[in-house]
Write a structure and sequence with these properties.
The chain is an alpha/beta fold. The protein folds into two domains: 161 residues, NAD(P)-binding Rossmann-like Domain (Rossmann fold), CATH 3.40.50.720; 120 residues, Orthogonal Bundle (N-(1-d-carboxylethyl)-l-norvaline Dehydrogenase, domain 2), CATH 1.10.1040.10. The chain has twelve helices and nine strands. The protein has a six-stranded parallel sheet, sandwiched between helices. Strand 8, helix 6 and strand 9 form a beta-alpha-beta unit. Helix 3 runs parallel beside helix 4 and helix 7 packs across helix 11. The protein is globular, with a radius of gyration of 21 Å.
């Protein structure tokens, strides 16, 4: 670790991704104080140098507080609820960077409350998962006051590969929602063509090797290859979370009068899977539903295939 001076940072929410991102900040030499609703999940970070607090409001005197929680109601609770970050009458952070995937409306409510206290709110949703973080390839979209972005951009750059400023207000929320809708649509399509090839006699390993080497291959198709080939559905992103993001995307499309017929169809497929009890496994399980519909029983090919993250 190379020690460095910089802003005092608070962090709210240490799920699978939050834990790793706090670790990256600590490794970069930042002073980080952490709140998590279940304190025991945050306590191992104390061994890495973090300070653990019992309420979000205890972070109010810091320079920058980053939040990463599961849903809109959780964001409003940690910011505006009892013991929330923005409830101390005498203190408020200079800036908040919220990396949760939440509705634009919820973010706007928090933004108004923050601005009334002289706190800048940056929307900072990320693209990636724990494996992507470990590979140093997480990316961040940012919107909000440009001055606050420029001040705290070095902190966000510690997350991974790149940070993109997309404009004022809530624009980064729309960018992330559009990103996640595309994630679901692409995964459904990738599952369909992979099953088509297999039903015609081509192994999933061979088909995806060809695809990944073609102009249609991508970081994402390579990353999902082990799950599709070996049917390892250890969760990186679950069906309920994907359904939530489809719903946010379709709500934004309705508001903006921007039709998304393919996304609407994919959302129904995901909702059916959730309704059938698929709530804990990775969303790559979409390939199982496609195979079932094709009358194809698929099994792990037990192949040595790369996820591409260590190859770039």
């Amino acid at each position: 670790m190379t020690p460095k001076t910089g802003p005092r940072i608070g962090w709210i929410g240490v799920g699978r991704m939050g834990y790793q991102l706090v670790t990256r900040l600590l490794d970069a030499g930042y002073e980080v104080s952490v709140y998590n609703r279940t304190r025991s999940k945050a306590e191992p970070l104390a061994e890495k140098g973090a300070t653990i607090v019992d309420r979000p409001v205890e972070l109010a005197s810091l320079d920058l507080v980053i939040s990463m929680v599961a849903a809109s109601k959780d964001l409003e609770a940690v910011m505006l609820g009892e013991g929330g970050l923005l409830t101390d009458p005498a203190a408020s952070p200079r800036a908040i960077a919220d990396s949760s995937t939440v509705s634009i409306e919820a973010s706007e409510r928090v933004r108004r409350a923050a601005e009334e206290r002289g706190t800048a709110l940056l929307a900072t949703p990320v693209s990636g998962n724990p494996s992507v973080i470990a590979a140093g390839k997480l990316t961040v979209a940012v919107s909000g006051p440009r001055e606050a972005f420029e001040e705290f951009e070095p902190v966000l750059l510690a997350f991974g590969r790149g940070v993109t400023y997309v404009g004022e207000g809530e624009l980064a929320r729309l960018v992330k929602i559009a990103h996640n809708v595309f994630l679901g649509v692409v995964t459904q399509s990738l599952a369909e063509i992979t099953v088509l090839a297999e039903k015609g006699g081509v192994s999933r390993e061979a088909f995806l090797a060809f695809l990944n080497d073609s102009v249609m291959g991508s970081v994402f198709s390579r990353y999902k290859t082990p799950a599709f080939v070996n049917l390892d559905f250890t969760p990186t992103f679950t069906m309920p979370l994907l359904q939530k993001d489809f719903d946010l995307g379709l709500a934004a499309a309705d508001k903006l009068k921007s039709p998304m017929p393919i996304a609407s169809a994919a959302r129904q497929i995901v909702a059916q899977a959730v309704g059938g009890g698929n709530t804990e496994l990775d969303f790559a399980t979409l390939i199982l539903d496609v195979a079932r519909g094709a009358g194809l029983e698929i099994t792990s090919e037990k192949a040595d295939v790369s996820d591409g993250l260590s190859d770039r």
